[in-house]
Amino acid sequence: MSTVHNIPVSEKELDNLLAQAFLNLDFNDSKNNELMETISTHHLVQAPTIITALKKFFGGKFLISMLLLSIVAVFVLTRNPEETTNTENKLITTPVSDSPELNQHANPAGPYKTGQNQSGAVQENTPANEMQKNPDESGNLIPSVSDENQKNQIHHSHPVNAGLVKQPADSGYIFPTLTEEETRDHYKQKNKMIAALSKLNKDKYAYIPSGTCDYKKQVISVKAFYAQTTEVTNLEYRTFLSDLILQGRKQEFLDALPDQTQWIKRVPTSYNEPMAEHYFSHPSYNDYPVVNISRKGAEMYCKWLTEETNKVLKKNNKPLIMNLRLPDEFEWAYAAFNGENDLQYAHGNTYLRNSKGSYEMNYLGYSIDECTYDSIRHLYLPAVDINKIQLDGGFYTVKTTSYLPNNYGLYCMAGNVSEMIIAHNTQKPATKGGSWFSCDHFLEIEAEDEYPGETGASPFIGFRPVLTMKTE
Q1: Is 24 a member of any domain?
Q2: E strands, 301-453, where?
Q3: C-alpha torsion sign, points 210, 211, 212, 215
Q4: Which residues contact 457 (CB under 8 A, 6 or more apart)?
Q5: Would you say 352 and 420 are in contact if contact means Cβ atoms under 8 Å apart?
Q6: What contacts 104, CB < 8 A, 6 or more positions away?
Q7: What is the DSSP letter of 162?
């Protein structure tokens, strides 16, 4: 335990103070901008180890967080860049160069352009062709890399970190490869997802019984269905992308890639480069909702998981499941009403806070009366400074299992990310539920679509698949 201003603080709190000091730098100063970018890009993961060591040496001195910041800054600016290569969590943003010398460092699995390697031969980017299959502890088959040269390479590229900007498959894009360890981890996670869906595990898929409810001055009827208890996570979506790579489905991989530049383009707060760099790829965000994906990407995910699950069920002579899909507006509304008719908000309550005054969802923190519509950003923004956004416990998104679930077991139906649905009357793309950057009105079950016509990547939109019950 250390102290700041003679107040006891934990090690974690002291690290947070340092992080806040870093974020409060004057970004208009070019030197600070350079320092900020260097630390966030190359040393974000390494910083806690350095900080912990320095705190043990200096102890709990006055203004220690600022002192540590200065020391880390000196360390960053004097460190050899060759030592800072992150071989696990670095996003691929560099296009293929015409220089073989540069290309050989861009992708250790073999640089190629437009489907060819340096010798001009066709480059087969299907790691599955180079694998043998071995059973894991549960009996499922897990490919392992058999090519010795590939085993000994250090793979800097990985589907979880794949590039920021989508490109056509023949553009010279350097596709990621997986190491043997990454491949085994991928198949373990994939098998876990398939098992949960095939068995309709209640912790992952909630049963929503058939019934009726009042919605927008009409009585709607809904057949029984299953809904994923959480929004699809970064880890789940990365598993999908990894599988496309292992199957050699290049164009589908590119079509489904998240566009992480939207953190910078769409979010009106000051400095979101660390989110663009780390949100989708860093394991700390594994259980956070995937965002910045297109509606096409979400639909591809549903189709992929359905097909992969049915392959296993068919092999084991078990009944196949119906298709995973995005929910109809009436299905989503019925699940949000939580088995009642007179609720206001999508988390299944009539209030935004519980009896202790704590928020029950992740949203902007402002009422719609306190916000104005920005026609350029296509967002509702607070009419005053944004200073309530952390009151609910999250500055951006939060883990998909945050807050209490509703009676059906569904988490974050209100806030966190606005969820993709299909408008019932028009069958057009729509969203419901509000996001971490929504004012209170869009958390209401009967609220209009906050992002009408939105089908592209957005840091405010995610998805929750549903599954129709089979009729006997």
Answers
A1: yes
A2: 324-325, 371-374, 379-382, 418-422, 429-432
A3: negative
A4: 258, 259, 262, 291, 292, 293, 294
A5: no
A6: 111
A7: -
Model confidence, pTM: 0.68
Token pair belonging to 279: 């949100």
Spacing of C-alpha 142 from chain mean position: 25
Helix pair 47-58, 11-23: axis angle to 10 deg: 120
The Cα–Cα gap between 205 and 306 comes to 14
The answer to whether residue 14 sits within a structural domain is yes
Domain range enclosing 42? 2-84
**378: in domain:** no
Type of residue at 450? E
Please report whether residue 22 resides in a domain.
yes
Are the C-beta atoms of residues 6 and 63 closer than 8 Å to each other? no
Backbone angles phi, psi at 353, to 5 degrees: -120, 155
As to burial, measured by CB atoms within 10 angstroms (0-12 exposed, 13-18 middle, 19+ buried), residue 418 is buried
pLDDT tens per residue, the chain (472 residues)? 544 444 454 554 444 444 444 444 444 455 555 554 544 444 444 444 444 444 444 444 444 445 455 554 544 454 444 433 333 333 322 232 332 322 322 332 222 222 333 333 333 333 333 333 344 433 344 443 333 333 333 233 344 454 444 555 566 788 888 999 999 999 999 999 999 999 999 999 999 999 999 999 999 999 999 999 999 999 999 999 999 999 999 999 999 999 999 999 999 877 899 999 999 999 999 999 999 999 999 999 999 999 999 999 999 999 999 999 999 999 999 999 977 777 888 887 777 777 777 778 899 888 888 899 988 888 898 887 666 555 656 789 999 999 899 999 999 999 999 999 999 999 999 999 999 999 999 999 999 999 999 999 999 999 999 999 775 4
**Three-state secondary-structure class, residue 306:** helix
286 forms beta bridges with none
- Integer-rounded Cα Rg, in Å, for the chain is 24
- CB 442 within 8 Å of CB 391: no
Q: How many other C-beta atoms are found inside a 10 Å radius of the C-beta of residue 87?
A: 12
Residues 130 and 198: their CA atoms lie apart, in Å, by 29
Distance, in Å, from the CA atom of 403 to the CA atom of 392, rounded to the nearest integer, reads 10
Total domains, the chain: 1
